[in-house]
């Protein structure tokens, strides 16, 4: 969690300085030893990393020790869905579109690739934040046919229909089964939080 928090903080800094964080990580990975790559993303999900470290933090407080790295990493990782939504707002603003009333399609809602588990998925937080801003939010995921929201069940939309109709597509989970060539061809704007479109060159793509 701490390593992911560090690279997510790097992503926040790189975004402010207009630097591609993915290129930074790739450059660092050329070091022949003593380097383990971690990658930024839209936030943490699952039943382990976002939760279990805080048990340790809680227990350490009982012993009078403050787990500062754990708490700080949790804070940074918890900010990432808001950072993604800010990216979406900026992309739409550049296209002279407000978030309110825009159709935004979330591509991939499981908390990591190629599974059907949505527990603590950052996609759910991103959807909620966008809905609060007045966006019309849809999703598709090859592994998740429906989700439970505050207003009831929400069914997944056909992917090609969803990305074609959307004002902005947000890649939150980089499932390997997705045809990303079609995503690039059919989408108007894309916010890629996982570098799933590495190698694609298009002005419609904005990376984390």
Task: Give an overview in words.
The model has no long low-confidence stretch (mean pLDDT 94). The longest helix has 27 residues, at 68-94. The chain is an alpha/beta fold. It contains 7 helices and 7 strands. The strands form 2 sheets. A 5-stranded parallel beta sheet has the order 2-1-5-6-7, with helices on both faces. A two-stranded antiparallel sheet has the order 3-4. 41% of the residues lie in helices and 13% in strands. Strand 1, helix 5 (122-132) and strand 2 form a beta-alpha-beta unit. The protein has a single domain (2-207), classed as NAD(P)-binding Rossmann-like Domain (Rossmann fold, 3-Layer(aba) Sandwich), CATH 3.40.50. The protein has helices at residues 2-16, 21-28, 52-62, 68-94, 122-132, 159-165, 180-186; strands spanning 103-107, 136-140, 146-149, 152-155, 168-171, 190-192, 205-207.
Protein topology:
Elements: H1 2-16, H2 21-28, H3 52-62, H4 68-94, E1 103-107, H5 122-132, E2 136-140, E3 146-149, E4 152-155, H6 159-165, E5 168-171, H7 180-186, E6 190-192, E7 205-207
Parallel strand pairs: 1-2, 1-5, 5-6, 6-7
Antiparallel strand pairs: 3-4
Helix pairs in contact: 1-4, 4-5
String of helices and strands: HHHHEHEEEHEHEE
CATH H level: which superfamily? Answer: NAD(P)-binding Rossmann-like Domain
Strand arrangement within the widest β-sheet reads: 2-1-5-6-7
Major β-sheet, in short?
Answer: 5 strands, parallel
In the predicted model, the low-confidence regions spanning at least 5 consecutive residues are none
Globular, elongated, flat, extended or rod-shaped: what is the shape? Answer: globular
Number of strands: 7
Name the average pLDDT. 94
Structural class: alpha/beta
- CATH architecture field: 3-Layer(aba) Sandwich
Portion of residues in beta strands equals 5-15%
Number of helices: 7
Task: Provide the CATH top-level class.
Answer: Alpha Beta
Please estimate the helix content.
40-55%
Our Rg estimate from Cα atoms comes to 17 Å
How many discrete structural domains?
1
Spatial gap, N to C terminus: 19 Å
CATH topology: Rossmann fold
